[in-house]
Design goal:
The protein is an alpha+beta fold and 212 residues long. Helices cover 30% and strands 22% of the residues. The chain has 7 helices and 11 strands. Strands 5-4-3-6-7 form a 5-stranded mixed beta sheet. β6 and β7 form a beta hairpin. α2 crosses α4. The longest helix is centred in the last third of the chain and has 16 residues. It is elongated and about 60 Å long. The chain starts with 12 loop residues before the first strand and ends in a 6-residue tail after the last strand. The structure holds benzoic acid. Benzoic acid binds next to α2.
């Protein structure tokens, strides 16, 4: 059955561009992003992996480790990484899983047969420090993902994990957040000393708690 939000991310051991890797050992206490691309030596994927490499500091600032995956082999990954580094002016510094036998792709339901029988779509999973699946997105092969949006969602997810807040439509880091409905309005001042605005009894806004 397909994975759903809140499920435990299945553990696996697989070959990768940096050797044999076990997901849980690799993640340790960090958050994770596991994302698939259809194939090596393809144009959109080349830009996506280059962009991800350039965002290394942003992922590290969010205590988040990144793993890519395709159903190509290790030698293919290694050659392609040189191309990515050359053409995208960066250094790929995260593992690319070589899922030749499609073991991980099947575990994470990354092959959507009506899109392609043999290649993974652009699946992306954010895995929390508790190993639970926090975000699932699927893009077609023809559309490169927006990695600013992925960082934005990680910010939102980590705020929810650490404070009792949610984030409104189009929220960006630094903007006001929503106090979750489970918190009674009477309890807000003690929990959110920066204050709050009650727009409606069910819509209470407060400054983002983790910034000055
Ligand atoms: C790409 O990564 O560029 C790509 C892969 C499969 C189909 C279309 C584009």
């Amino acid at each position: 059955m397909a994975l759903r939000l809140g499920d435990i991310a299945p553990d696996f051991t697989a070959e990768s561009s940096v050797g044999t890797i076990n997901l849980y050992d690799f993640l340790g206490d960090s958050w994770g992003v596991l994302f698939s691309h259809p194939a090596d030596y393809t144009p959109v994927c080349t830009t996506e992996l280059g962009r991800t490499a350039k965002l290394a500091q942003e992922f590290a600032a969010r205590n988040t480790k990144v793993l890519a995956l395709s159903v190509d082999d290790v030698e293919s990954h290694k050659g392609w990484i040189q191309d990515i580094n050359e053409t995208q002016h960066t250094t790929v510094n995260f593992p690319i899983i070589a899922d030749k036998d499609k073991k991980v792709a099947e575990l994470y339901d990354m092959i959507h047969p009506n899109a392609s029988e043999s290649f993974t779509v652009r699946s992306l999973f954010v895995i929390g420090a508790d190993k639970k699946v926090k975000l699932i997105i699927s893009y077609p092969a023809s559309t490169g993902r927006n990695f600013d949006e992925i960082l934005r969602v990680i910010d939102s997810l980590q705020l929810t994990a650490n404070y009792s807040v949610a984030t409104p439509a189009d929220w960006k880091n630094g903007e006001d957040v929503v106090v979750i409905p489970a918190i009674k309005t009477a309890d807000i001042p003690a929990k959110f000393p920066k204050g709050f605005t009650e727009v409606k009894p069910y819509l209470r806004l407060t400054p983002q708690p983790n910034i000055d």
